[in-house]
TrEMBL record:
<dbReference type="GO" id="GO:0016836">
    <property type="term" value="F:hydro-lyase activity"/>
</dbReference>
<dbReference type="InterPro" id="IPR010327">
    <property type="entry name" value="FldB/FldC_alpha/beta"/>
</dbReference>
<comment type="similarity">
    <text>Belongs to the FldB/FldC dehydratase alpha/beta subunit family.</text>
</comment>
<protein>
    <submittedName>
        <fullName>Benzoyl-CoA reductase/2-hydroxyglutaryl-CoA dehydratase subunit, BcrC/BadD/HgdB</fullName>
    </submittedName>
</protein>
<dbReference type="Pfam" id="PF06050">
    <property type="entry name" value="HGD-D"/>
</dbReference>
Length: 331
């Protein structure tokens, strides 16, 4: 089976219909025990130190793992991806650009996905059949999410992990479904854990995975992972076809569309505060201005760079933020 890398979530149904094994290059990079080597490869080849660690990590992951085909999302994700795929092409990688339409019009989304199907020579019927199969797996992740914020049986990191993994289903949908079902059955048997501060996490998935365990030291629980949840398409069953499903996907579109869903989840989950994660040198950090004006609960912006763990300064800021929320709640 052919392997293809993706720089972020794309209509994976199309690629599976075309017979590909799909690998999310972000996951390949950040789960590596020697993730920093991928960054070093990119910097050795000329990527500036002031460029995003994710972009450099993706580049290194492609070369080190001998990925020969890549889907590069050039609109609706990282603004540096256009330059990344140009460098990948120079290295002999076959690159297919994909763009979520800035207009966020259903007509334009439909045209984009139809063109994507034509590019890989697959029919809408086959794509819809695979979409139904994947949405059955996505329902399992949705149940895990419910066990997080309703029943308190799943911790924040698990919530993050099992939703972010739906960007590529760990490269094997059958094995992933089996693993996810086993994990769900184990989670359902747990005793609930109630913590006094209920947190939401918004922004790109973090380089610093220890964030989730760190906040738990202060009787706090991350019960909402915004972008990871979007990767899992929690509203997929409401979409009549693949076009509506990717039209309703918030991540690639404007901040106001994202904020609509964020506000809904804050209310539904009774969230006390938001941690907004941004990556160093990323344009999305500017969106924090809008987020803080639009949300009526406390928001803390933290920034990651090359480290895969929290630094001392960020830990101090998070602790102070959680103390403030506890004081506001009177607990």
């Amino acid at each position: 089976m052919k392997t293809i890398g993706i720089t972020t979530t794309v209509p994976i149904e199309v690629l599976l219909a075309a017979g590909y094994r799909v690998i999310d290059l972000n996951n390949l990079f950040i789960t590596s025990e020697e993730y920093w080597k991928y960054i070093e490869i990119a910097e050795r080849d000329g990527f500036p130190k002031s460029s995003c660690a994710w972009i450099k990590g993706i580049y290194g992951a492609v070369l080190e793992n001998k990925i020969t085909e890549v889907i590069g999302v050039i609109e609706g994700d990282c603004s540096n991806t256009k330059a990344l795929i140009e460098v990948l092409k120079q290295n002999g990688i076959k690159v297919y650009p994909f763009a979520y339409p800035h207009s966020h019009s259903l007509i334009d989304v439909k045209k984009t996905i139809k063109d994507f199907m034509d590019l890989f020579g697959v029919s809408e019927t086959k794509v819809e059949s695979i979409r139904k199969r994947l949405n059955d797996i996505r329902k399992i992740a949705k149940r895990i999410d419910e066990l997080t914020y309703i029943e308190g049986k799943v911790n924040g990191f698990e919530n993050h992990l099992y939703q972010v993994s739906l960007s590529d289903f760990n490269g094997d949908i059958d094995e992933f479904e089996e693993m996810l079902l086993k994990k769900l059955h184990e989670m359902e048997k747990r005793s609930p854990v109630k913590r006094k501060v209920r947190l939401g996490y918004i922004g790109v998935p973090p380089m610093t995975g220890d964030l989730y365990k760190f906040v738990e030291k202060f009787d706090s629980h991350i019960i909402y992972n915004e972008v990871q949840r979007e990767f899992a398409f929690p509203r997929a069953e409401k979409a009549k076809d693949i076009y509506e499903q990717y039209y309703d996907y918030t991540y690639p579109y404007d901040i106001n569309f994202r904020l609509e869903k964020i506000k809904e989840e804050i209310k539904k989950r009774k969230i006390d505060g938001i941690i907004h994660y941004t990556q160093a040198f990323c344009y999305r950090a500017i969106e924090d201005i809008i987020i803080k004006k639009e949300l009526d609960i406390p928001v803390l912006n933290i920034e990651g760079d090359k480290l895969n763990h929290l630094d001392a300064r960020t830990k101090f800021r998070i602790e102070a933020f959680l103390d403030m929320i506890s004081d506001l709640k009177g607990c």
